[in-house]
Design brief:
With 145 residues, the protein is an all-alpha fold. The protein has five helices and no strands.
Length: 145
């Protein structure tokens, strides 16, 4: 089943890169907040359709969930806006590179401290080295020789 996780993650990464560019170009035409409203509204509509067709959970259990987890929607807006702003100022490659590094750092902290109900995983020196190499890669990539 690990291969499916890799495939889904690759699809997510590709979709995020495309979405960032599409959203930034849409913002150029209709405005940052207007495009964000359109993007979030479209996502909401398709999420409702998917829930009706394929959902097997119980939305009534929202009250039983930790209220912190309700911030996912707010984070979606933050993500969409900041990706658009990053794409407009840095371009797709550097923006996605910085996003990946930030995601890796935050995920590593979540793992290292076992935050939000995740299993605590050690954060060895090799992980620090990996992050440093990624940062170095972005810097080298951005160099104009």
């Amino acid at each position: 089943m690990k291969i499916l996780g890799i495939v889904f993650s690759a699809i997510a990464g590709a979709a995020m890169s495309l979405q960032g560019v599409f959203n930034a170009r849409l913002a150029d035409k209709v405005g940052l907040y207007e495009s964000n409203a359109f993007v979030q509204g479209t996502a909401f509509l398709f999420a409702l359709i998917a829930a009706f067709i394929a959902g097997n959970g119980n939305i009534g259990n929202l009250g039983a969930a930790n209220k912190v987890y309700w911030l996912g929607g707010l984070l979606g807006i933050v993500i969409t806006l900041t990706v658009m702003l990053g794409m407009q100022s840095l371009g797709p490659t550097v923006t996605v590179s910085v996003i990946l590094i930030a995601q890796l750092l935050v995920a590593a902290l979540i793992d290292a401290f076992g935050l939000f109900g995740t299993e605590q995983m050690p954060f060895a020196w090799t992980k620090y080295l990996g992050i440093a190499l990624m940062l170095s890669g972005v810097i080298v990539f951005k160099l104009h020789v």
